[in-house]
Design brief:
single chain; 300 residues; alpha/beta; 7 helices; globular; binds guanosine-5'-triphosphate; binds magnesium ion; binds zinc ion
Length: 300
């Protein structure tokens, strides 16, 4: 038996993985067993099998960002230092998706940052207003015009990304590819190499991809992921949801009933805070929407 080596998963596509060795060589690997458990960002043990490799095991993870509906779990990436949710005024972003991504990040213990892109467009004003509750609850919101003011955008992003592994999430059209191309001059080359190895097309939007920002020794990386329509949060028990929302959290423990779910109960400190304007109506509405989803019994 050949020896097991350590590597990092830098792309995944179905059962195929690209593993990067510590001396930066990339090897197409297959996962042992029925289903690949490894995701981008994982450290894995693998061994050679001809020109290719077989992943034999996944090292323990620091964290894992995933979404979960009633039936399926979909992992984004592992061992992250941060998540950058990129949104824009045009196309108008779904606040529900944004809120859900932030709850998932909080649940996984990963700090999140919001990038408001396309601030050159008139629609930015409305988007900025919709993001005000997020800025107020302590999520950094950085304004970007990735296409029309790239130098300023790079300067705003660079210190946030330095020395960290950051997953970029966001709806289609928000500017994720524009961001990757701005921050990673070798992006085309890196993605071309991966596409060739996976035998997939040039625009592999179904693939999650790791990009080094500059010299890998500096440890800065961006992970590009495909967009998503649904963002299920079934990994979160309904009763824990409020504690994962930083604007609701300070009011917990002040309700009349110790087991208050902050929906219709009298003497609810969360609803009182909504009435005083300390929690925004949109955030409380999203709390209710997600809470109801998590507390409903599974459909058959
Ligand atoms: N006005 C304006 N347009 C921008 C800006 N940044 C990106 N765009 C444009 O927005 C469109 C979408 O950008 P992409 O980078 O392809 O968006 P994406 O998030 O990768 O989209 P998907 O690949 O579909 O998920 C392109 O036409 C960009 O040129 C900006 O700062 N201002
Ligand atoms: Mg794109
Ligand atoms: Zn309450």
């Amino acid at each position: 038996m050949t020896e097991l080596r350590l590597g990092r998963v830098v792309a995944s596509h179905g059962r195929h993985l690209i593993v990067e060795t510590d001396d930066r060589r990339r090897v197409l690997c297959h996962a042992r067993g029925k289903k690949s458990q490894a995701v981008v960002g994982d450290r894995v043990r693998w061994q050679r099998a001809g020109d290719e490799g077989v992943v034999e095991g996944v090292e323990p993870r620091r964290n894992l960002l995933f979404r979960q509906d009633e039936w399926r779990t979909k992992s984004f990436a592992a061992n992250l230092d941060g998540i950058l949710v990129l949104v824009a005024g045009e196309p108008v972003f779904s606040e529900s998706q944004l809120a859900r991504a932030l709850v998932a990040a909080e649940h996984a213990g990963i700090p999140a940052l919001i990038g408001l892109n396309k601030v050159d467009l008139p629609a930015a004003a409305a988007a900025r207003a919709r993001l005000a509750p997020y800025a107020a609850m302590g999520v950094p919101v950085i304004e970007l015009a990735l296409k029309t003011a790239p130098d300023a955008a790079r300067a705003a992003l660079a210190p946030r990304l330095r020395g960290r592994t950051t997953l970029v999430l966001g709806p289609s059209g928000s500017g994720k590819s524009t961001l990757i191309n701005l921050m990673v001059p070798q992006a085309d080359a890196q993605v071309g190499e991966i596409s060739r190895a996976l035998g997939s097309g040039r625009h592999t939007t179904t693939t999650t991809t790791w990009y080094w920002l500059g010299d890998p020794a500096e440890g800065s990386a961006l992970i590009d992921s495909p967009g998503f329509q649904q963002f299920g949060l079934h990994q979160v028990p309904a009763a824990e949801l409020a504690a994962l929302m930083p604007d609701l959290r300070p009011h917990l423990g002040h309700c009349r009933f110790y087991n208050c779910m902050h929906r219709h109960e009298p003497g609810c400190a969360v609803r009182a805070a909504v009435e005083r304007g300390e929690i925004s109506a949109s955030r409380y509405r999203l709390y209710g929407e997600i809470f109801d989803e998590l507390s409903a019994s599974p459909r058959w």
